[in-house]
Amino acid sequence: MTFQELNLNEKTKRALQYAGYVCPTPIQEQAIPVILEGKDFIGQSKTGTGKTASYSLPMIEKIDPANKKVQAIVLCPTRELAVQVADEVRKFLKYQEGIKTIAIYGGQAIETQIKMLKKGVQIVIGTPGRIMDHMRRRTLKLDGVKMCVLDEADEMLNMGFEEDIETILKDVPSERQTVLFSATMNKRIMEITKKYLQNPKKVKIQAEELTVNEIEQISIPIKEAMKSEALMRLIEVYRPQKAIVFCNTKKRVDDLIEVLKQNHFKAEALHGDVKQTGRERIMKRMRNGEFQILVATDVVARGIDIQDVEFVLNYDVPQEEEYYVHRIGRTGRNGSTGKAVTFVVGKEKSKLQSIKKYSNAKIKEGTIPTLAEINKIRNRVTIEKIQSVIDKNEFEYQDILDGLESKNNTEDIVKALLTIVCGKNKTKEIKVNIKDGEVIKLFFNLGKKDNIKVKDFVGSIAANSGISGDKIGKINILDKFSFVEVPGEYVEDIMNGMKNKQIKGKDCSVEIAKH
């Protein structure tokens, strides 16, 4: 099932598609239809299973944009969760007009919240304590509420909000729909459900266990612009026979496929627009080893049944923690080893922490392979290929060799052939002797006159070369030029990455400083 098959309005479906939501998680698949029918609902599932969308999507369907009164209220145990839920709801409201939501919690000026509430808000998401404050001040009226959600109910009770919750529920019209989500179902929660929910539908989702023993998991901090280059470097380093790359949207899949094919990688796309017959054909071709890389969305994360997948890459951090389990579970199966890499851009670090907590996974931080490392690997592959021909005695082109040997010695012929063969695959090298651990000073043609600051150099170098900012050393900005110190192993990446680039709109040139 996909979200497009659910009974949601077209604007919501469009927002889901834009945000990269393709297939509902098990809790979403079971909860959304029931809540849409107007029935009370109890969902037992841990954080990361997609519970926010489970109640917020049907909640949005029930809101009347013309009515400016509060029509839905969501109670959360912490302000962090309240903000997270509000952000998620706004994401789903991207194409809706006239529906407003607000997160209200302690620690934020109550006057600001009062001002927003006066303007008219249909969905209120907040902590019980702050909601009670507004109720006492009469700045929040709940007489128009049609739906009430208790999110992470067990946590709210553990934090002592039981009395506040009961006070709020008593103030909400009795002719309402009540939805409760909790990771656990203890006696106190059951008492609340008996008291305030009417014939609720109960669903329990068992969180999937992630078998990590045979899967090496790595996260790589990266700039968005470096993703495709980094993927191709990783494929060269790990050299998998079968690899799956997951993206959050079908547009990302299609764009990446173009890049991979332009760079002579054998790759195929799989997403919601590919018909079932097409999917089966692509799966069969991958099983037969006819191409190396499958680029897919989460629509097929559960349904991919291909053995011996050695490498999985999360090109985008998945929307839900549960998706991570499905994605990387495609490798390391049936006792074989596997490797899973996740690209992490900026603020996605917090999402990665949620994934670690949800999946109980040990994800170590890695780096993008340097061009020097890539060239070493390419040389090793060339040596292996030549040695294989020698071992198998599969020699050809004797007539060409005879012609060359009449004028040259054998060593010169071999060197010339290697120059031709390896030159096609080798990235441009910096002709300088760099010792291991040596710090190299780079000369940039931009300085104070160009209004360049240290952060501009760090940001541009990191974005264009994939080098982490903390690897960059001393930066000395003079009037007309600047010097940047970097470890020798990154010189080639930086000089190639900064070629024909600009910093703050100024053409940039870089070379190794002569002193």
What does this structure look like?
The strands form four sheets. The chain has a seven-stranded parallel beta sheet with strand order 3-4-2-5-6-1-7, with helices on both faces. A seven-stranded parallel beta sheet has the order 10-11-9-12-13-8-14, with helices on both faces. It has helices at residues 10-19, 26-36, 51-61, 79-92, 110-119, 128-137, 153-158, 162-171, 187-196, 227-238, 250-262, 276-287, 321-328, 348-359, 371-392, 398-405, 410-425, 454-465, 491-497; strands at 41-44, 72-75, 101-104, 123-126, 147-150, 177-182, 201-204, 215-221, 243-246, 267-270, 293-296, 311-314, 338-344, 364-365, 439-444, 475-477, 482-487, 502-503, 506-507, 510-512. With 515 residues, it is α/β, with parallel strands linked by helices. 42% of the residues lie in helices and 16% in strands. The model has no long low-confidence stretch (mean pLDDT 87). The longest helix has 22 residues, at 371-392. It folds into four domains: 3-204, P-loop containing nucleotide triphosphate hydrolases (Rossmann fold), CATH 3.40.50.300; 215-365, P-loop containing nucleotide triphosphate hydrolases (Rossmann fold); 371-424, no CATH class; 439-512, Alpha-Beta Plaits (2-Layer Sandwich).
- The CATH fourth-level homologous superfamily of the largest domain: P-loop containing nucleotide triphosphate hydrolases
Strand order of the main beta sheet, please? 3-4-2-5-6-1-7
Strand fraction equals 15-25%
Q: Radius of gyration in whole Å, from Cα?
A: 29 Å
Would you identify the regions where 5 or more consecutive residues have pLDDT less than 50? none
Largest sheet: 7 strands, parallel
